[in-house]
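Why do we care about 3D structure at all? Because function follows from shape, and shape follows, mostly, from sequence. That is the central idea of this module. The next example makes it concrete: a single protein chain, its amino acid sequence, and then its structure expressed as tokens.
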Amino acid sequence: MKIFPNPTNNAIQITGNPSINNKNFTITDILGKTVKSGKINNPDDKIDLSDFNSGAYYLKIEDYLNAFKIIKID
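And the structure:
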């Protein structure tokens, strides 16, 4: 599975793993506060981060053990 571009200033795209179809996701800030959540409707979905402040965030996808670090830049 690839999450790109990272760092990003706009949106991230998740590709390469059809098993994430219809999985819930959560994005948290470095303090653990949920800043966005939703459902991945297809393996090539984009997640809009344009309203996020610059900084580090963590993407957690349902049924995956690891979180993915995302860097948002302006």
